[in-house]
Every structure is written in C-alpha cells, then in structure tokens.
Amino acid sequence: MHPPAAHTPIWSKAAKFPDFVLPMGHASERHYLMSQETHSARWIGFRQPVLRVALERQGKRFENTWQAHREAGLGEVWEEEEFWIELSWRVDPDGSLGIRKYFESPFRPGEKLTVEEYYRWIFENSVPGLPEAAAKEGLTPLDYMRRYGAALGYFSTPGSADAGLYAQGDPVTGFANDKPDSKGWIGELDWVPYENTKFALQYTMYNKFNGGDTNYDGTGRNAKDNNTLYLLSWINF
Q1: CA torsion sign, 51 to 122 to 148 to 32?
Q2: Quick check: pTM over 0.85?
C-alpha cells in the first residue's frame, strides 16, 4: 500500500509511489524553528524563506510564500505550515467540524492564521526572555529574531590514508598519518541593522587538521593553530 500524496520539492523515493506529488519548499525556502541538543545551552533558531524576503524588500507583498515562489518563476511551491493552514480551512470552511478554530488568527478573531502570525505568537509567548530583550531595542520579538542570527555547525572531513596525496613533513600543509581527516566547529553571529545590510562574525575551531590534533605537519604545528576569526559585511542594493 502506498501513500496517496507526498510533500517534496525534489524527485526521490518519497515521490516515486504516491498518486500526487505536492511541491513543498524546504531548507531556506520556508519558515522553521530549530533547537537541536548540540551543546549545554538553551537556544532557538529561526529560518525564513529567502526568495520571499528578497522580493518583499523590493516592495512586493504576499499573503503566502507560494505566491513569492510563483513571482520568482519557481511555480506554486508551498511551505508546509501554510499548506496545512489552507487545507484546514478548506476542509472545515464554516467551522462546524471543530478544525478551523485551531487555524484562526489569535490577533484577528475569525480570520485565517498567517505564518507570520503563527511565529509572532510563539516568540511573544513561548520563548523566555525574548520579549524583554526585544523591548530593550524597541523591536517586536518577531523583528528581533529577524534582525539577529546565530549558527553553530560541526564539520568532519574523513579520508583514507594515501602517502602519495597526503605527504608528511611540509610546514602548515603537511598531513599526519598520511590522512586528510579534519574536524571541528564553526560558529557565527549575524546582525542585520537594516533590511539591506548585514554584519557577521564567524569563528572556525579545529579539533583535528590534516589527520592530527597535535604536531600534525611534523614541524610542531597543532590543529588549533589554524583556528580563524572572520568578519564580513554585505550591502544589498
């Protein structure tokens, strides 16, 4: 027995058997909250559609993200939350089934919930300390999450030993154990003071570099000696 429909923007095993394939945005083309247990701290990440934000900064306005995708030439690619909101209203248009009430706006009684209102309510009521931090800067919690960003990622580049490709003994670029293995963490802080301006501070920390953590090149250089701090800015015009 196969599923009648699949939500996916790509051709994959999930899209091979269903009767219908509904184009669904993922990755950067949707709103999404993230809070993995990567380290000993409480944090929350907020992902937003790239194309929709870019077009809105050009003065265009959209009720749903798929409208921005259509404007950009991608077709009617929905983001999942908006799909379920729309589906619930169509299944229960008058509210008699008791479904529609869960997808009504908390700020506009009786009106359809928008994805921005969905996250606005979460940030105003479910993230401890966020409303107070936003108020100090004269921002709403939603605007605060759109202005400031942070990311933490782990990377690992393994490889098989090969003395011909990964020779030892070269300063800085040498390889321990004839292996290319490198791993570590990348952290980034973002600040968007204006809609077209962004500043970012990125730090890369190596736990292993070119196959070793200490004296990896055979001349006394350690993996941590390659840690880097990167400051960047961009202006969109």
Answers
A1: negative
A2: no
Cα→Cα distances 140→71, 125, 129, 134, Å: 28, 12, 12, 6
pLDDT at 44 over 70: yes
Half-sphere exposure of 36 (CA within 13 A, CB side): 6
Domain ranges for the chain:
19-127, 147-237
Locate 69 and state its tokens: 């995708």
Residue 170's pLDDT is: 75
Confidence category of residue 236, pLDDT binned at 50, 70, 90: low
pLDDT, residue 83, reads: 87
How many angstroms separate the CA atoms of 169 and 173, rounded?
A: 8
**115-125 helix and 80-91 helix, angle to the nearest 10 degrees:** 110
> How many C-alpha atoms does 138 have within 13 Å on its Cβ side?
1
- The token pair at 99 is 């479904």
In order of 34, 53, 100, 119, the CA distances from 29 in angstroms are 14, 10, 26, 16
Beta bridge partners, 148, equal 191
The contacts of residue 232 (CB under 8 Å, 6+ apart) are: 199, 200, 202
Q: Which residues of 60-91 are buried (b: 16+ CB within 10 A; e: fewer)?
A: eeeebbbbbbeeeeeeebbbbbbbebeebbee
DSSP state of 18: -
Lowest-pLDDT range, 32-41, 187-196, 216-225?
32-41
Residue 5's pLDDT is what? 73
List the structure tokens of 152: 């933490």
